[in-house]
Amino acid sequence: MDQTVTGMASGSKTSGFPPATDIDTGVIPIRPSGRGMLQVAVDETRRSAALNAPIKARAEALGFYYGSFQALKNLTMEIREKQVTALIGPSGCGKSTFLRCFNRMHDLTPGSRYEGRIMLLPEDMNLVAPEVDPIEVRMRIGMVFQKPNPFPKSIYENVAYGLRIRGVRSQLRIQEETEKALRGAALWDEVKDRLSHSALSLSGGQQQRLCIARALATSPEMLLFDEPTSALDPIATARIEELIAALREQVTVLIVTHNMQQAARVSDYTAFMYLGELIEFDETSRIFTNPGRKATEDYITGRYG
Amino acid sequence: MSTEGLGHHISSRYNEDLERLRSSVLEMGGLVERQLTQAIGGITEPDARVIVQVAQEELRVNQLERSIDEDCSRILATRGPTASDLRLIITILKTITDLERIGDEGQKIAAIAARLAMRERPNSRYRELRNLGELVIEMLHDTLDAFARLDTELALAVVRRDRTVDEEYEAIHRQSITFMMEDPRSIRRALDVMWVVRSLERIGDHAKNVCEYLIYLVHGKDVRHTKIEEIEKELHAFKG
Prior knowledge:
The structure holds two protein chains of two kinds. By secondary structure, chain A is α/β, with parallel strands linked by helices. Chain A has one domain (54-301): P-loop containing nucleotide triphosphate hydrolases (Rossmann fold, 3-Layer(aba) Sandwich). Chain A has helices at residues 44-52, 95-101, 134-140, 155-165, 171-184, 188-191, 204-217, 234-247, 260-266, 284-289, 294-301, and strands at 55-66, 69-80, 84-88, 112-120, 125-126, 141-144, 222-226, 252-256, 269-274, 277-283. Chain A starts with 43 loop residues before the first helix and ends with a helix. Chain B has seven helices and no strands.
């Protein structure tokens, strides 16, 4: 690894300011806000909303093992309510593993093991505790995958299914909730006249929005997105991004993306992970203009460390 | 100039693009510095050709400004730069505007120098202009040096020196008024002197601006419209 330190900062060895990046302290630098007038301009309204948001979930010294391989190491971070938090990092850094912990997707992986906790607030429920029912977790925390995976059923059934599983019996109620979810996923106008058609007849982008509607139907508190647009064209991608921006009015969003610009566009907070560790976690506006650590800088600017 | 500290992009063409951009800015800065040196030289050593020389450099400066602008937009559009790369592009876009204006001020000074050359010279031989001119040239020189080496200490020193320029400006201003009151025949010359001093003062401001952008580039801190004491305090707090 090239240790010639830092981006712009290193040029001035005599400089009085500390280098903009700092890789040696063991602490994840979540910088205090409002350090006087010397600040990079950001969208202040959005920012203060983000800073004042209560905490929705908190990973506490979370570790995860696939057999003897430790995929997540001592991860501690807070997810704020009704904000979008993006997880970025190179392949194999553990971001998807981390995301999947939130709705217990690893339960079926033989030999897997959790350490530490993920607390869901306000009731302080440990999502990864064995005694907590994964089905309940998944009702409260929905997930949308990389490739759209609608059920091979009608558009309507894809959304109504979750409601039925949840024990909703009233047809009228199911209809209402289904429409609400489809509207929430910005799909209603496109499919309202063909609800009985197969979900597989939809385009890729529509299928992905259907999957979002399906996740929304059970009124989750959190939505997990695992690279939701990597299989979509730019227009469908823009729609999904718009949707994510709108969704944060109602749910907390955690999103894994390889598209750096997407993370910069849609998220309020960004976590940069590397080799199973959380390297830096900060407001997105800071991460993308003036990250605190060299490793983050190298990754987002497309340099090798 | 070295970009060792910047690390290398996975894309070598991106590296080359950014490197070329930095070189172009320094080339432009060098030309502007030459313009200014010639213009001020024209005041102390009367030479009617100075205006032609300065105007020739101006063409090249304008060309460079346009091509750097174009390169920056292309990089913004195609690379989506982030973090230090983004700050570099923003800094360059702003810097070249200030450099170009320094060039314009240099041209104004050259025009006045040509006029002064045709007139009788005062006993002082425009010593005060030469002193202030040298101070400002030095500021510009250090600014470009700081830019090349990403040296924010030097940049801060330039920001500090701008205050001296402002004081000099005030002093010459008062002196000119005195001359004009003493002898109305000196008004014409005193006014010309004032124009030059005004241009020099503006150049000092532009150099200061570039140094402030540079601090943003290196530290990600926007120090514009911040008192120098505040900047230093910030710096001291970091050191402490």
